[in-house]
């Protein structure tokens, strides 16, 4: 979500791949979640073309990758829990430390997660798309929803 004084722009990006490994007893996490930057769309063709060409440069940087490094919290045998993930987010060719909150629901080996985090894209070196007449925030809020299957090492 990107906010301006008049409205909020919502958009989507497709997931390319994702695998996460974690040990909540030790707090360790690894893996990679890869988003297809070139798939980003907001429902406005002109805005999306400008976003891809001038802001995200999606031909040059076609992926955004989150690599988890640490996890706080526990995944229950069944039910809902809150987790915090710390890791590295690679965007526009640069790595940035990132923390995100996750709500996780477990039902047997099925896991559903919703995560929210903020990307301070201007501070991270991307262009601000503001114009003379349109001002937008210098950060964007990201919401992610996903499902997965828990597997255990043998």
Task: Considering the chains and any ligands shown, give keywords for the structure.
154 residues, mainly beta, 7-stranded antiparallel beta sheet, two-stranded antiparallel sheet
Overview of this structure, please?
It is built from 1 helix and 9 strands. The model is unreliable at 1-5 (pLDDT under 50). The strands form 2 sheets. Strands 3-4-5-6-7-8-9 form a 7-stranded antiparallel β-sheet. The chain has a two-stranded antiparallel sheet with strand order 1-2. Helices cover 7% and strands 56% of the residues. The chain starts with a strand and ends in a 5-residue tail after the last strand. The radius of gyration is 17 Å and the shape is elongated. By secondary structure, it is mostly beta strands. The protein has one helix at 45-55; strands at 2-3, 8-9, 12-23, 28-41, 63-72, 79-91, 94-107, 110-119, 140-149.
């Amino acid at each position: 979500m990107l906010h301006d004084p008049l409205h909020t722009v919502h958009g989507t990006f497709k997931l390319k791949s994702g695998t996460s490994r974690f040990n909540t007893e030790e707090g360790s996490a690894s893996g990679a979640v890869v988003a297809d930057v070139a798939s980003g769309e907001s429902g406005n063709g002109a805005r999306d073309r400008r976003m891809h060409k001038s802001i995200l440069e999606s031909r040059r940087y076609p992926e955004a990758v989150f690599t988890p490094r640490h996890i706080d919290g526990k995944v229950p045998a069944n039910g809902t829990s809150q987790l915090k993930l710390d890791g590295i987010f690679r965007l526009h060719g640069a790595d940035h430390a990132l923390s995100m909150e996750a709500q996780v629901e477990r039902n047997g080996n099925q896991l559903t997660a919703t995560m929210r985090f903020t990307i301070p894209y201007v501070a991270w070196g991307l262009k601000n798309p503001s114009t003379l007449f349109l001002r937008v925030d210098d950060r964007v809020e990201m919401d992610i929803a996903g499902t997965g299957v828990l597997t255990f090492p043998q």
